[in-house]
Specification:
With 307 residues, the chain is of the alpha+beta class. It is 40% helix and 18% strand.
């Protein structure tokens, strides 16, 4: 989240980006399809959520994830039509084609040596479609070893589900930076210049400042409020405590997950499981006589509210 890997442009961005901050160096080289966008990153977020859900309950994981196409499209706000297939394919091609060279370490530290690594965000992808009608059935994604190590070492942060409703690229990027740097602190102050650099925005400072003021005025960011202070400073404060998932969450069996899946066909059951755990943690993590019954009851109630 801290470094600008993804393009904020809605047009193909073929610029080579070289970013340096403190001791961190990142070079992002796009393919002819353009650099992966901040909306393409939704696919990675979805994959990471599946891995974290498995890790939290002790299920085995691997770099290749086989996903239900409908779940992926719904979770990332994409169309389930034939046009949705083309857009998803384009996103995969940008993710696989964008190459990153960096000295950011994931997993165990490499001290006393500095290691520079080059990789793509995903190693490979596959979409399975029915030959008649062209409907997508399943999607397989193989994450890069670098990204997979980051997940295994839990070098990831939770995001508000409202993040996916943000339609302006800069809003999404500003939220990511607030989540990374402010987190659960009372406040985070940053200069407009530094925020512009960290965002990866290509806009001149005066244009960037104007866009920031629009974000401040609209106040759509989940979890955080922004205010402008003297000296070209932006102050970020959490609206309320940002709740992290509890370290010990009751495990759910495959039978329980299948029963929940039958209640809400087509829903991303692992995302629902993660949401339920967050609700459970936010309520003080009370003891549960039957985690399975509690989860299924919550899913049933939630499904009733959605209908």
């Amino acid at each position: 989240m801290e470094h600008p890997l993804f393009s904020l442009s809605t047009r193909p961005d073929r610029r080579i980006i070289e970013y340096r901050h403190n001791d961190i160096e990142v070079t992002v080289t796009p393919s002819v399809k353009g650099r992966a966008t901040i909306f393409d990153a939704d696919i990675l977020i979805f994959c990471i959520s599946q891995l974290m859900a498995a890790i939290n309950v002790g299920r085995p994981t691997q770099r290749t994830l086989t996903l239900t196409a409908h779940d992926l499209l719904l979770a990332t706000g994409r169309e389930t039509s034939g046009d949705g297939y083309k857009r998803l394919r384009d996103a995969f091609e940008r993710l696989a084609g964008t190459r990153i060279t960096t000295n950011i370490a994931t997993g165990p530290k490499a001290d006393p040596f500095e290691v520079t690594t080059g990789f793509g965000l995903i190693e490979s992808w596959e979409i399975v479609r029915r030959t008649r009608g062209g409907r997508m059935v399943s999607v397989a994604v193989t994450l890069s070893e670098w990204l997979y190590r980051a997940v295994l070492s839990k070098s990831v942060l939770t995001l508000s589900r409202d993040y996916f409703s943000l339609r302006r690229p800069l809003e999404r990027r500003i939220y990511e930076l607030c989540r990374k740097h402010c987190g659960r602190q009372p406040e985070w102050r940053v200069s407009v210049d530094t925020l512009c650099k960290k965002s990866g925005s290509a806009s001149p400072r005066r244009v960037f400042r104007a866009m920031l003021r629009e974000i401040i005025r609209d106040a759509h960011l989940p979890d955080y409020t922004l205010t402008e202070e003297e000296g070209d400073i932006i102050c970020v404060r959490p609206v309320a405590e940002v709740v992290e998932p509890a370290a010990q969450i009751p495990p759910l069996s495959p039978d329980t997950l299948n029963a929940a899946r039958a209640m809400v066909p087509g829903a991303d059951i692992y995302a629902l499981e993660a949401e339920w755990r967050d609700v459970w943690a936010a309520s003080g993590a009370p003891p549960l006589k039957s985690p399975a019954r509690a989860f299924l009851g919550w899913v049933k109630k939630r499904a009733g509210q959605d209908n």
